[in-house]
Inverse folding.
């Protein structure tokens, strides 16, 4: 039995058959290593297979599923799901608290924030809120849009001992300031990065296993297939790239709601022979794709300081990305990557063609990216340790 019980409120599990999200499970592991008991409270999901760690207890509840793609009606169902989650998660946490006395509640995402606050008030313990970026920055001057996204706004507003914001380029620090979150409560931290560079990696052999010929270059997109990720931009750039260089393939790793539309777009552009969808892979296997890539592309709409970019920089890869959010804080144009302005997305194909042709430029940008990463990024162990130390500080 651990020295204290920490209740973790999360809208999903922390592990799937393809691996877990390090942003969640590394922090949980760091707390377990400090001999705390973690009680994960989340909806039941048959795709989730949470790790069987000592001192990790998973308490699931059934959350009704709502699916509607009709604009307006889908908004209503999403908000209904939000309120039902609050009710069911709070009830589950209070029920568990009769057997396990909580010492702190750690709430993940805007779904967890209200539950964390309610439990903290009832049990008279500290609560910490953890948000992974934000969609609110473009809406800050639009009161109607902020009202329609009240659930995310409230996540910033609910009182807590600390608000941990991922510095993913979506400018959560500015959002917190505008929403009047006390400055001393904000922890604005970039994600950690494991060592992704594999020395003496046989990329030619690996490329062959995923259908590339020995002389073909590999463009990599490693991302969730969601609308705001704008993966259609690189797909639409491929016909022009292929018209001038046929020894190239676009490899897309990930899954998501937009998968069918992106595959349909690929067929429409007659790019099936040059674009391959791999699907979801285990996190540990993403290193093989990153180390095999000649160019890594990220064209997200909000920000491009994603785990993919951090890990690709750490592996010494040539990055092509867009100057959205606060991406320019880590990518310097033609120094450690290529940073396109949002209005120049139509130049994406030309930039990639240039990089495919110029091996020296591509390798120089990758080398400088790795130098920057080694100097500025923390390991996941260090980053998770920061969070565990903060949580420990507020445990009653």
């Amino acid at each position: 039995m651990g020295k204290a019980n920490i209740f973790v409120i999360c809208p999903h599990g922390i592990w799937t058959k393809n691996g877990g999200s390090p942003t969640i499970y590394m922090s949980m592991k760091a707390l377990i290593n400090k001999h705390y008991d973690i009680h994960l409270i989340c909806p039941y999901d048959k795709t989730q297979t949470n790790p069987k760690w000592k001192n990790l207890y998973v308490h699931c509840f059934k959350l009704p599923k709502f699916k509607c793609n009709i604009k307006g009606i889908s908004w209503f169902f999403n908000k209904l799901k939000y309120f039902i989650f609050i009710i069911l998660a709070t009830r589950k946490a209070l029920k568990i608290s009769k057997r396990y006395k909580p010492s702190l509640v750690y709430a993940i995402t805007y779904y967890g924030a209200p539950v964390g606050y309610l439990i903290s008030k009832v049990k008279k313990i500290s609560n910490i809120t953890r948000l992974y970026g934000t969609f609110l920055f473009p809406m800050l001057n639009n009161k109607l849009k902020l009202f329609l996204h009240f659930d995310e706004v409230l996540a910033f507003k609910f009182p807590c001992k600390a608000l941990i914001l991922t510095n993913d380029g979506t400018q959560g620090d500015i959002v917190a300031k505008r929403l009047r979150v006390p400055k001393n409560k904000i922890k604005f931290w970039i994600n950690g990065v494991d060592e992704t560079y594999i020395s003496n990696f046989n990329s030619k052999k690996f490329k062959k296993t995923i259908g590339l010929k020995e002389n073909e270059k590999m463009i990599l997109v490693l991302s969730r297939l969601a609308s705001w990720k704008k993966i259609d931009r690189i797909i639409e750039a491929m016909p022009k790239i292929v018209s001038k260089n046929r020894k190239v393939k676009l490899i897309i790793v990930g899954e998501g709601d937009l998968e069918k539309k992106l595959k349909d777009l690929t067929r429409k552009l007659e790019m099936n022979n040059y674009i391959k969808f791999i699907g979801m892979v285990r996190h540990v296997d993403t290193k093989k794709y990153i180390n095999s890539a000649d160019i890594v592309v990220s064209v997200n709409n909000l920000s491009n300081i994603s785990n993919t970019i951090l890990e690709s920089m750490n592996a010494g890869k040539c990055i092509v990305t867009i100057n959205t959010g606060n991406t320019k804080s880590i990518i310097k144009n033609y120094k450690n990557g290529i940073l396109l302005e949002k209005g120049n997305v139509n130049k994406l194909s030309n930039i990639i063609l240039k990089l495919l042709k110029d091996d020296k430029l591509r390798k120089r940008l990758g080398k400088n990216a790795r130098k920057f990463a080694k100097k500025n990024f923390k390991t996941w162990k260090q980053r998770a340790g920061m969070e565990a130390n903060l949580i420990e500080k507020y445990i009653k």
Residues 73-97 form the longest helix (25 residues).
